[in-house]
């Protein structure tokens, strides 16, 4: 019971059903949303959850109590349901918010695997998800500032008008799906290894299904921007704002750099292993 209260008590980890605060927070200005959804608040929740898993209870106690199975089940449900809910959102920030709910539970799942690779993957995803998701939210802000568009259905042909913004969005999307060389691939690779070490085929299925769902809710945005024609009413001049473009390009490059050279993050994450 104490373990369950810890798991759901850190509501900022957004494990379902205590997740509704996170989509509600998307009404904040985009820089604040980026801070909430990528860096500060949600990462505090999962960091505290991992501290409880690995240091308050520890791997041996979790195995003995069977609490790892409960945590894995809660994380798997959140990953899949969060992804399905993201599919149904036309508002860009709302889709990214439900994506955050799903992605946070990768971290919880990694720790609950109780295997070295799984723990490494979960901890690494704290950083890898942060740089990717902050890029996506900064792109959403850049799109709004330049075009005042908030709905995905309005973004046809946007890559021709905002090439830097949409290129950064595409890179961050590949990272969340888990496509190399972006940083999200590193996290998912270690989570997959952790599932293999645990001998859990159903968790491998969850990871595969979630990656396909990630592609299903992020891919259409990139497709519309690059491969659909903009409506006639949208052919006015749209200019990217340099002070918006510079940070999102830098975070997109960080997502690539952490995928090509993950050693700093992985070595730091490895300090928690026995």
Give a written overview of the molecule.
The protein is an all-alpha fold and 274 residues long. It has one domain. 77% of the residues lie in helices and 0% in strands. It has 13 helices and no strands. Helix 6 packs parallel to helix 10. The protein is elongated. The two termini are 26 Å apart. The model has no long low-confidence stretch (mean pLDDT 87).
Decide which structural class fits the backbone.
mainly alpha
Number of domains: 1
Which blocks of ≥5 consecutive residues have pLDDT under 50?
A: none
How big is the Rg? 18 Å
Strand percentage lies at under 5%
Determine the N-to-C terminus distance.
Answer: 26 Å
Fill in the keyword field for this structure.
274 residues; mainly alpha; 13 helices; elongated
């Amino acid at each position: 019971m104490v373990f369950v209260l810890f798991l759901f008590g850190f509501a900022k980890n957004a494990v379902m059903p205590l997740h509704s605060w996170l989509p509600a927070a998307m009404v904040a200005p985009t820089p604040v949303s980026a801070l909430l959804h990528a860096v500060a608040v949600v990462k505090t929740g999962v960091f505290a959850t991992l501290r409880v898993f690995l240091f308050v209870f520890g791997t041996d106690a979790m195995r003995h109590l069977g609490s790892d199975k409960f945590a894995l089940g809660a994380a798997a449900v959140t990953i899949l349901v969060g992804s399905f809910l993201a599919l149904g959102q036309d508002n860009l920030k709302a889709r990214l918010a439900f994506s955050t709910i799903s992605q946070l539970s990768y971290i919880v799942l990694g720790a609950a695997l109780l295997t070295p690779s799984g723990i490494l993957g979960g901890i690494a995803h704290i950083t890898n998800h942060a740089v990717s998701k902050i890029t996506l939210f900064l792109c959403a802000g850049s799109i709004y500032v330049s075009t005042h568009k908030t709905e995905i259905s309005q973004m046809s042909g946007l890559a021709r008008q905002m090439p830097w913004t949409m290129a950064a969005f595409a890179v961050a999307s590949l990272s969340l799906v888990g496509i190399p060389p972006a940083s999200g691939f590193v996290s998912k690779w270690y989570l997959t290894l952790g599932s293999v070490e645990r001998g859990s085929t159903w968790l491998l299925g969850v990871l595969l299904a979630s990656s396909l769902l990630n592609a299903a809710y992020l891919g259409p945005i990139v497709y519309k921007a690059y491969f659909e024609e903009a409506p006639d009413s949208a052919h006015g001049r749209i200019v990217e704002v340099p002070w918006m473009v510079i940070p999102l390009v830098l975070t997109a490059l960080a997502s690539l750099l952490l995928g090509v050279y993950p050693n700093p993050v992985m070595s730091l994450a490895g300090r928690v292993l026995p």
